[in-house]
Specification:
The strands form two sheets. The chain has a nine-stranded mixed beta sheet with strand order 2-1-3-4-13-12-11-8-9, with helices on both faces. The protein has a four-stranded mixed beta sheet with strand order 6-5-7-10, with helices on one face. Helix 1 packs across helix 6. It contains six helices and 13 strands. The chain has 205 residues and is of the alpha/beta class. Helices cover 26% and strands 34% of the residues.
Length: 205
């Protein structure tokens, strides 16, 4: 049995993430926490996020989670979801400009004005750009569910693991060493989303 910590800093759809992980890993200990010691002791970390990035970053600072997240991304399997992807980068245009965690190089920008509705909400194809273990048993161009108005504009193309298109081509998955993060919501993406979570649970670094 392994311990999987879902970082709970008071924002994000953490219960649905927990239920999805419990479905694919019924024999593991999956728990919500903001306790630094428990996060440090866990075997795997899931970092979900939802809402405005400025408030999320403030919550992380208030819960003293910034350093533990930076450490975890270098030491153990780490999965970021939605804002859990965006917060890994240097900065975001949201909330008048918000500094991120600077774990990856790049920034988060608003979708350009177009005839498409913002936020980008619903199902979209994900083109896999890396042969990564978390894509195991997931077909290229599979559909995943997204809800976001901002997207990652990364600096280092080598970390890009998946791309989508919504008026502009954008990075929707990144991978670096033991870190994997996605813009979409695997917990809302039915079979392929559950498969991705199962792959994460079984990911051997």
């Amino acid at each position: 049995m392994q311990n999987i910590a879902i970082i709970d800093y008071g924002m994000g759809n953490v219960r649905s993430v927990q239920k999805a992980l419990e479905h694919v890993a019924p024999n593991d200990n999956i728990f919500l926490t903001d306790d630094v010691a428990l996060i440090n002791a866990a075997d795997r970390i899931v970092f979900p996020g939802q809402g405005a990035i400025g408030a999320c970053m403030q919550k992380l600072e208030n819960h003293q989670l910034v350093d533990v997240i930076k450490q975890a991304t270098n030491e153990k399997p780490f999965l970021g979801i939605c804002l859990g992807l965006q917060l890994l980068f240097d900065s975001s245009q949201e909330n008048g400009g918000t500094q991120g965690l600077s774990i990856l190089a790049g920034d988060v920008v608003h979708f350009p004005k177009s005839n498409l509705k913002i936020p980008h909400m619903g199902w979209n194809k994900v083109k896999q750009t890396q042969n990564h273990p978390l894509w195991h048993n997931i077909k290229n161009n599979a559909h995943f569910y997204s809800v976001h108005s901002y997207y990652v504009r990364q600096v280092d193309s080598s970390v890009v693991a998946g791309i989508s298109d919504y008026g502009v081509e954008f990075t929707c998955a990144v991978a670096k060493n033991c870190l994997f993060a996605v813009q979409f919501h695997p917990e809302k993406s039915q079979h392929d989303g559950l498969q991705l979570l199962k792959n994460f649970v079984n990911w051997s670094i």
